[in-house]
Specification:
Two copies of one chain form a homodimer. The first copy, chain A, is mostly helical. Chain A has seven helices and two strands, in the order αααααββαα. Chain A has a two-stranded antiparallel sheet with strand order 1-2. The radius of gyration of chain A is 20 Å and the shape is elongated. Chains A and B meet through helix 2, helix 3, helix 6 and helix 7 of A and helix 2, helix 3, helix 6 and helix 7 of B. Chain A binds a DNA duplex through helix 2 and helix 5.
DNA sequence: TAATGTTGTTATGAGTCATAACATTCCTAT
DNA sequence: ATAGGAATGTTATGACTCATAACAACATTA
């Protein structure tokens, strides 16, 4: 009964903005707001959020190639080229041949320092992000999100 | 105790992919996978997801101007121009002067038909989306997402 | 060894987004 | 009522992400 009333209220409240009832729309808006804020924070150390994720994965994996990295991040091989080129030009990572055609990605010392700075920003950002979610929903968010894309 | 074991497992599982522990990353991936799929489905009626949201809001609001619409969708005034121009060129909406500088946006009959087709696709898409979320998390997703960006 | 698949790369175009600038029109505070 | 400030629609421009096609060099397998 209470639920029914709440539901009717939400319909009335959303009459002029039907998008608010669509999880897909909420998801898109939440993500783009989140990305905008994270990007702003990472700009302080001249890093883009995509680049931060590259540093994280390169650091965590040995003999990671550009292709494998792209597969993990769901970024096309072709699009890895300018991404990695920028990081290489900034002296954050370098490549070492694994065989005739593959290269392992490795962090330079500068890259490791940058990663540390990035992790500080990201950790504090994630904390702020979760803090915005009402406590009763908090434990469900991560699992629900991952269900939406992993092996989805 | 069981929780602690589950937590340790998740750390081990994510050692090579630390990104999976970051809600922000999960959010980004979920959103981009969702957008890709919705876009693919809307392509069947030659509509982009942004355009669908415009049709929905124009239909639901009287005397909606381009600026007001942009504010609702969090799209810059400047970026509304090409967006609306495409919809106008497709004969889906038209403008009527409200005063010397503002125009009300209105759907044509073609636009209303297109909206109906879009809603069918979107409704079924949203259903599929929610179906992917384990039942115990489902009631929390929408509220958690909205908390992340609304008056956030 | 021949066929097939993978890697790294170049090139290109679409979609989204941000910013700056401008003229016209409006609102408001004096 | 009017002068100053705000809002609207618009053009222009550049950044970032993403998708696709094509290619040569190399690896893998059947």
């Amino acid at each position: 009964m209470l639920l029914a009333i709440a539901f009717l209220r939400s319909i009335l409240r959303n009459m002029k903005d039907p998008l608010l009832s669509l999880p897909g729309y909420s998801l898109r808006r939440a993500a783009s707001a989140m990305i905008a804020e994270l990007s702003a924070r990472l700009a302080a150390i001249d890093l883009r959020h995509t680049e931060a994720s590259v540093l994280i994965l390169v650091n965590a994996n040995n003999d990671l190639t550009a292709s494998a990295l792209g597969r993990k991040l769901d970024i096309q091989r072709a699009n890895m080229v300018p991404l990695l080129a920028r990081l290489e030009a900034a002296g954050l990572l370098y490549k070492e041949p694994l065989d005739g055609k593959s290269h392992a990605l490795l962090l330079t010392d500068t890259g490791k320092a940058k990663l540390k700075a990035a992790m500080a920003i990201i950790t504090s950002f994630e904390g702020d992000l979760i803090a915005r979610v009402p406590e009763q929903h908090r434990p469900h968010l991560q699992a629900a999100l991952n269900a939406l894309w992993q092996n989805g």
